[in-house]
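Before the break, one more example. Copy the sequence into your notebook; we will annotate it together after we see the structure.
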Amino acid sequence: MDRGVCISWYDLQPARREEYLQWLHGQYLPGMLKRPGIAWATHYSAEKGRPPERLGHTDDTSVPGGGDFILLIGATDAHVFSPPHPYETVAPVTSDDATMRALRVNERVSIMTEEARASGPQAQQHKEGAELAPCIQLGTFNALPAEEDELLAWYARWRMRKMETLPGCVRVRKLVGVSGWAKHGVLYEFT
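Here is what the structure looks like once it is written out:
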């Protein structure tokens, strides 16, 4: 089971980009995979495009706008990512954690839980519970309270079902925010 997802969108300080990426892929992610409850961890470089103009995206400057990289960590549930009590300490994954994480700029973190999942035609080629497919599309948004029921119905009755037949689709997950900006998320996986 991998129903919890911690998502981090961020930019990197260019001067130490390669050093950071070597640490992330060589030490940090393998270390995370050894932690209880963690099912998978993956990292993407984002392809930049103009964001869609629709209701729900924020121009709130208190929400960090990083987006050159996306780090996703899947867990049995969202509670795996709960912060420790003030008297508890969490051991770092590597001795360089604090230094390397400080290279992330404009980082936005969201912890989400899976509301629904649908498998596409290529799902059989990708092991359930494994890290994500090679290509993802990830969107987060808020909806007006008056539109919540319509949004739920659209995903339940139309969108998720259509993804089951889309060539190249591995799966789609409809997510709901537990912590961080955005109440809703949708994570598409493609070959």
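The chain has a mean pLDDT of 89. The helical segments are 17-32, 97-101, 148-163. Try to locate both features in your own notes.
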